[in-house]
Design brief:
The structure is a homodimer.
Chain A lengths: L8 H7 L4 H6 L1 H14 L5 E2 L6 H5 L4 E4 L3 E4 L17 H4 L1 H14 L5 E6 L1 H10 L7 H9 L1 H25 L3 E6 L7 H18 L7 E5 L15 E4 L5 H8 L4 E6 L8 H15 L5 E5 L9 H14 L6
Helix pairs in contact in A: 3-6, 7-8, 7-9, 8-9, 9-10, 11-12, 12-13
Chain lengths: ~325, ~325
């Protein structure tokens, strides 16, 4: 999950000369940083370097990504009328730079490891588009969904259709798997979760032309994992607050599980990294269907040698689970 | 939960003349804002106006509370050596201004409604003391607990003992119930949650001299509520992401439940406020043991009339549950 990043000196060297969005939009550079972790860390798959907010940006919303503040839209969506401003035709065409980055990355990978592409889920994209920036309470986007649910659903449907197109294009361009991130699913009450988040993830999953490319859904912070069990996807992402053994029994064996390690464990001494790796593998238990991963994005200050050590631990210790 | 606040013009009038910490430390003013919501909103209990960080402040840590940035400690705890800086004797004595505020509030309330006092749980207090300010990833405090668990436990034990003393003093001063908040319990993996959070909440609950004052524990973001079922407390607080009916069956009938309404619902039209109130009461079902409340603190921009409407809905609709 988000393997490339500020923790790598090789990435920082490129970022010193290029702002974040330009990096996303320049296939030569995006493919270069995508491939970095494969050589440096030794992970088993590459994740295309990008950002979930390229979709609203391609709809005409002016986006700035500031390291100090995170992403900022200077003219957020606040009403049904604001939806008129969105340029919803030809979104995937305007994201063609990503398809070019996929093709270049596939060339650079040259078959060594598979490539994963991702998209934000409609609810998470909508939170940023309405709040205009990060939020603690998300009261602006929630005010919109409670006060004008029709406008909210219109926006979510626009986004769901765009995500279907976008992920299908990514698969066609060469992604071997796609992931749908709903980073802010966990801020919704059970009823609102179904109405404003899961409904649209379900819609997307049913419309992906996957050609057998696995589909990963990560709805962060969703307590009741059984709600994800019926999604038409292959893998469910888990953060670190759930027990992966319990998750396996709640979700059932029809889906693989991904994740579960607290990204902060990479700041711990080697013994703790090994212990936590062992614990997660044991809790998952024997058998196939576990994509070992962090439970969220890798943090900027993570020591590189600890990521390398983690990968070596996983490779060494997971053998037992597959005897 | 945190009833007084910026959403009330009467509170803002006082804050215009007084900074946040001075307000906490001036019994005449703290008691005045504590009583405001009783008259204005019509709630059934008062919550003493204060802040969880008065404990580290009384241990000698310099605290600033900035409206734009939240709380900031300018010299956070980063190592075992830093613990020497904490002045851990006589903490409750230095918090005597709070006991005075309790006595004044009880006089102002004059028996109309009970008074609830609160404390942060050791883990949440430690996160602020180590991070020095709010955080998204909490990598600094987690680095400490993973790298030097002995120091982390020393800090948590110091805090646990301080919280026991502090809450016992609050009960002696006249609080009719006490609440322990673990706002950041939900950022821990299941094993770390037990080791660094619940262990200390359990320690506190076993040592409170309650004189039958109910003890409320709110460990926000804890997915597996059965973990809280054996705590020696009377009420478990719930945020809005869980179904209160499911929570009731997981925790069992020996404890009452508090909370469950998304604070953002107070930004919704009246019909939605009524509908959500109805839904939560129905999900809880008939019988005693539900303290209707928000699932977290009331938000600064909440319209006052909506809080009044919520209280009237709860009073009207909850009658059915008690037939």
């Amino acid at each position: 999950m988000r393997q490339a990043g500020r923790y790598l000196p090789e990435y920082r060297a490129i970022r010193e000369k290029t702002d974040f969005l330009t990096l996303c939009k320049t296939p030569e550079l995006a493919s270069e940083v995508t491939v970095q972790p494969i050589d440096i860390i030794g992970v088993d798959a590459a994740i295309l370097f990008s950002d979930i907010l390229v979709i609203p940006e391609a709809m005409g919303m002016h986006l700035e990504v500031l390291e100090s503040k995170g992403p900022v839209f200077d003219a957020p969506i606040r009403s049904r009328g604001d939806l008129q401003r969105l340029n919803i035709d030809g979104v995937t065409e305007r994201l063609n730079y990503i398809m070019d980055a996929i093709k270049m990355t596939k060339e650079k990978l040259n078959g060594r490891v598979p490539l994963i592409g991702f998209s934000g889920a409609p609810w998470t994209l909508a939170t940023y588009m309405v709040e205009g920036k990060g939020s603690k309470s998300f009261d602006t986007v929630k005010s919109l969904i409670f006060t004008d649910p029709v406008a909210a659903h219109e926006l979510l449907q626009i986004l769901a259709d765009a995500v279907v197109d976008y992920l299908n294009a990514k698969i066609r361009a060469g992604c071997d798997a796609v992931q749908i991130f709903d980073t802010w699913a966990g801020i919704l009450s059970p009823g609102d979760l179904e109405e404003f988040s899961l409904k649209y993830i379900r819609y997307i999953c049913e419309r992906l032309e996957t050609n057998d490319a696995p589909v990963i859904v990560f709805a962060k912070g969703v307590n009741d994992l059984s709600k994800l069990a019926d999604l038409k996807c292959d893998v469910i992402g888990l953060d670190w607050t759930v027990d992966i053994g319990v998750a396996r029994s709640e979700i059932g064996s029809t889906k693989a599980l991904q994740g579960n390690l607290d990204p902060c464990v990479l700041f711990a001494p080697k013994e703790k990294i090994r212990l936590e790796t062992e614990r997660i593998l044991e809790r998952f238990g024997p058998g196939e269907g576990h994509v070992f991963n962090l439970g969220h994005g890798i943090l900027p200050k993570t020591p590189v040698e600890n990521t390398q050590y983690l990968v070596s631990c996983v490779k060494e210790l997971s053998v037992r689970n597959h005897l």
